[in-house]
Amino acid sequence: GAGVSQSPRYKVAKRGQDVALRCDPISGHVSLFWYQQALGQGPEFLTYFQNEAQLDKSGLPSDRFFAERPEGSVSTLKIQRTQQEDSAVYLCASSLVGGASTGELFFGEGSRLTVL
Amino acid sequence: AQSVAQPEDQVNVAEGNPLTVKCTYSVSGNPYLFWYVQYPNRGLQFLLKYITGDNLVKGSYGFEAEFNKSQTSFHLKKPSALVSDSALYFCAVRDRDYGGATNKLIFGTGTLLAVQP
């Protein structure tokens, strides 16, 4: 497709379950970002990839959160042993170039995670 | 640290009237500022950005924003609001980059724009 695609769109997990969220960025985009958006809040940065390299993971809230982009295209955000506070919309964004550019980010529609 | 503030949780305006959604920023170095719009159950969509040059930036859907360095503001404006403009609007600033590594954005808390018919 032409845009950033995320799946699943909705995920309900029981506390303690592991979840995996997928992001398929725009073809050829070098940069990929994951953001977390809690209800009524702005997106909060989680992690950043330039191609397959994870250059910034300063926003990951705990070691239960793990992200990868092994071939420099599709990325997966994994949350282990989910907690209720993990409930949020997880947004993926991609950008054409890497590094300190001023290009805009293109966002997917998000994966809404609800932890019961 | 870089940050933006959106002082209004909600802005109400009648259709056909001008609208303003406020944003102020705090940065070290040159500010790179953005506006995004989020419709219900949709991802964020880019509206416009200020990098350098003319203080009045024009963007998508008839929106524009005015960069004001002395007031550290980057307010979003539109001369005539439409009901379809009703959405959540986010101001963002590019994070300060120390090593040329990223174009990561830092977002404000958002302003809900409600345009009444």
Report on the structure:
The complex is a heterodimer of chains A (about 120) and B (about 120). With about 120 residues, chain A is mainly beta. Helices cover about 0% and strands about 45% of the residues of chain A. Chain A has no helices and 11 strands. Chain A has strands spanning about 5, 10-15, 20-25, 30-35, 45-50, 55, 65-70, 75-80, 90-95, 105, 110-115. In chain A, strands 2, 4, 5, 6, 9, 10 and 11 form a 7-stranded mixed sheet that branches. Chain A has a 4-stranded antiparallel sheet with strand order 1-3-8-7, with no helix packed on it. Chain A is globular, with a radius of gyration of 13 Å. The termini of chain A are far apart. Chain B has about 120 residues and is an all-beta fold. In chain B, about 0% of the residues lie in helices and about 50% in strands. Chain B contains no helices and 12 strands. In chain B, strands 2, 5, 6, 10, 11 and 12 form a 6-stranded mixed sheet that branches. In chain B, strands 3-9-8-7 form a 4-stranded antiparallel sheet, with no helix packed on it. In chain B, a hairpin with a 4-residue loop joins strand 8 and strand 9 (about 75-80). Chain B is globular and about 45 Å long. Chain B starts with a strand and ends with a strand. The model of chain B has no long low-confidence stretch (mean pLDDT about 90). Chains A and B meet through strand 4, strand 5, strand 9 and strand 10 of A and strand 6 and strand 11 of B.
